[in-house]
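REQUEST ID: PR-0412
SUBMITTED BY: lab tech R.K.
PRIORITY: routine
TASK: structure prediction, single protein chain
INPUT:
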Amino acid sequence: MSDSINDTFDQLDNLVIEPCLEIHEFEESSPKASFNGLLKDAPRANTSVLNALSQQLIYQINLIVPNALVSFDDLDVELGDAAYPFVPPAAKLGLKKAIEKRGRKLVVNSAYRTLAQQMLLFNAKKMGENPNPVAAPGKSNHQSGLALDIDDRDGWLPFLQGTGWEPLAGDPPHIDYRGQGARDLRKETILAFQQLWNKNHPNEKIGEDGGWGPKTESALNRSPATGFAIAPWDNKPRILRLSRPLMEGSDIRKLQEKLQAGGFAISVADGVFGSGTDKAVKEFQKQKNLTADGLVGSKTLELMA
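STATUS: complete
OUTPUT:
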């Protein structure tokens, strides 16, 4: 597997197009909370119930192709509840330029959609709960890592011109990145899941080929919405911080437990990096004469041990 990001447009032309506006409205129709159970049993009206599993999948993709997806939640953007703000570095730069040119907030309703999220939408379609066309997992352009659904697309297009972002005909909110550094990540999206499944199920392995089939579908439906016990960041820790959507996982629960043991105010170690955890981290950093930025990297973790 190559670890470089190359221009690839051939796969982009073989994408299944979905009515993004209708799917977004369907997705926003229910309360948001992490689901404690298997994906196949999760409430199907909002994909944010898969937050923890989705974050593991995104992290695993970046282990396969380093720096393939970077967060743009630090830009002047407003994000939908289930929108993962991840695009290639060059695509983020294009968004930054467009936002600076227009001088207003960009509203993003949907961005990168994980394989788990697509499975939930696909299940809802099969059960007759979602009337909109839904691509099979791995077939949606939102798994490519190059797709966004935005408000006021026509108003943004003059500012996006020349940045690599282009409109998708027939789908009013949708834009795709086709500029330098574009790479369709649909294969890696599936491969990331296959690798995580096999790491956690050594006696029930599935093929690691990046292809979608009945064994991969069955395994994904039987995966925990709260993420796998063996997480991709166990061997290569991620930087923990307050983000959108909120970071969630076993590494955050361990962080919260250490903060609690140190006497910092954490009401419950729930594994979600919210504002309370952010405040406690900054208080710890200030106490240890570190930059109180709320970013939990190697130095903060070292002093917390």
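NOTES: The domain at 250-304 is CATH 1.10.101.10 (Muramoyl-pentapeptide Carboxypeptidase; domain 1).
REVIEWED BY: pending
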